[in-house]
Amino acid sequence: MPPLLQQHERMEERFTAPFTVIRLLTPLKMSYETAKKRAAPYNKIAGELSEMRQDTITLAKQAVRENRRAYVLVNNRSEGNAPSTVQELASYLRSEA
User: Fold this and answer.
1) Which of 44, 57, 86, 92 has the fewest CB atoms within 10 Å, i.e. the most exposed one?
2) In this structure, what are the phi and psi dihedrals at residue 88, rounded to the nearest 5 degrees?
3) Phi, psi for residue 22 in degrees, rounded to 5
4) How far apart are alpha carbons 83 and 16 in whole angstroms?
């Protein structure tokens, strides 16, 4: 799959429902098995994915501006520790408010 913002561009940068779901799964150009090995034992960020984070923030902020709910589902395979990724995204969003 292409990066999040490229996927959104293919949808003409429009959301088609009263909510959006952003799923952060396996890093771009990385196999499931490689991501799994990289992330284990899932107790810390194995590698920050700055483009993924920025795309997530951009899309979530657009959804909120349009009075839509934004749900972000984070898998441990994305950066290695989903709770830490969520904390970083939330921290950034709070600092922008």
Assistant:
1) 44
2) -65, -45
3) -110, 120
4) 28
Phi, psi of 73 (to 5 degrees): -105, 120
Q: Which of 35, 11, 38, 10 is nearest to 24 (CA)?
A: 35
pTM score, two decimals?
Answer: 0.89
For 48-59, write each residue's pLDDT tens digit.
999 999 999 999
Residues 6 or more apart whose Cβ sits within 8 Å of residue 89: 53, 56, 57, 60, 72, 74
Beta bridge partners of 22: 72
Residues β-bridged to residue 19: 69
